[in-house]
Amino acid sequence: MSAEQPPAPSAEAGTAPRPVLEVTGLEVRYGRRRLPVLRGVSLDVGPGETLGLIGETGSGKSTFARAVLGLVPAAAGSVVIDGEETRGHSRRQWRRLRRSGVVQYVFQDPLRSLDPDRTVAESLTEPLLVRGVTAAEAAERARAFLDQVRLSAELLDRLPGELSGGQRQRVAVARALVTEPRLVILDEPVSALDSANRVQILEILKDLRARGTALVLISHDLGSVVGVADRTAVLYQGELVESGPSADVVNRPRHAYTRLLVSSAPTLHGARADRAGREALRAQLTDLSH
Ligand SMILES: Nc1ncnc2c1ncn2[C@@H]1O[C@H](COP(=O)(O)OP(=O)(O)OP(=O)(O)O)[C@@H](O)[C@H]1O
Predict the structure, then answer these.
(1) Is the pLDDT score of 233 beyond 90?
(2) Where does residue 190 fall: left (phi above 0), alpha (psi -120 to 50 degrees), or beta otherwise?
(3) Residue nearest to atom 12 of ligand 1 (CA)
(4) Is 31 in the pocket of ligand 1 (CB under 6 A)?
(5) ipTM for this model
(6) Protein residue with least CA distance to atom 26, ligand 1
(7) 78 pLDDT higher than 60
(8) CB-count exposure of residue 273 (10 Å: 0-12, 13-18, 19+)
(9) What is the 3-state secondary structure (H, E, C) of 35-89?
């Protein structure tokens, strides 16, 4: 930065930095009947911030991810990624944005993120080579990112089919990071993994905060997300019913659905309700949705 330029706004100076993801009033409809699957969803994620997005199956979590990536059209609302307003974007504009490397994504099934015929080295260097990075630098960065996800360079010549599920998911995370994106959307990245791998991936994601990468961590499992996410948002039947610092969401849940999630999460010590308590919360929810 030159001496003439004004300093970048910083949180310390009392001015919040511009969010990397700003979603306002997002609505998505599917099918011929145009049934709304997401309604009025608004949230933002700042640089280096991790937002957990929690909800039960069918609540619209993946639809949210797909809409933010331009893979399904928004019927209303706006999605701004790193300052770029995407409302009205053509398919080509969305493709350019996805290829720019500003936003990356990781799916639950790493085989969807990785080409089965490409070695780990090829998967990691390809996003860099298409952006004009030299082969030598791409190889160096591939090694560095493999190290960051705590995998040995010995795996560089393997195909995805020759890796364990946990290793594959770590390669998928490394591939998403190698372009140094501003925003990474992770859709259930740990739900297919055993608990040891789950903990390791979540630890790796925690480390990313220091790099300034904004993360949206999508899961149906509140317990696995709150330890990593700075803020947690709860999606219920296509609407955000609660959002706040993760500790507040766990300790002072406001919505009946969040209370049910908290009381059902075996990993949230002390928060687990007995069966009768959970049934009472479910009854409250039924009342709310009628
Ligand atoms: N392409 C589609 N066409 C029509 N309906 C769809 C389509 N994709 C998803 N839906 C419906 O939209 C709703 C939300 O689905 P979505 O996959 O976003 O939920 P989710 O919260 O990610 O669920 P899960 O945890 O099971 O992945 C569901 O009722 C689903 O059946």
Answers:
(1) yes
(2) alpha
(3) 37
(4) yes
(5) 0.94
(6) 57
(7) yes
(8) middle
(9) EEEEEEEEEEECCCCEEEEECCCCCCHHHHHHHHCCCCCCCEEEEEECCEECCCC
Segment 156-180, tens digit of pLDDT? 999 999 999 889 989 998 999 898 8
Atom of ligand 1 nearest to the CA of 65: 18
Protein residue whose Cα sits closest to atom 25 of ligand 1: 57
Half-sphere exposure of 21 (CA within 13 A, CB side): 28
The CA 60 to ligand 1 mean position distance, Å, reads 6
Question: What are the b/e assignments for 30-53, b being 16+ CB within 10 Å?
Answer: eeeeeebbbbebebbbbbbbbbbb
**What's the gap in Å between 37 CA and the centre of ligand 1?**
8
Distance from the first to the final alpha carbon of the chain: 56
| Per-residue confidence band for 101, with pLDDT thresholds at 50, 70 and 90 | confident
Whether the predicted model's global pTM rises above the 0.90 cut = no
**Residue 146 CA, distance from chain mean position:** 20
DSSP letter at 265 equals -
Helices (H), the chain: 61-68, 91-99, 110-113, 120-129, 135-148, 165-177, 195-208, 222-226, 246-251, 256-264, 275-288
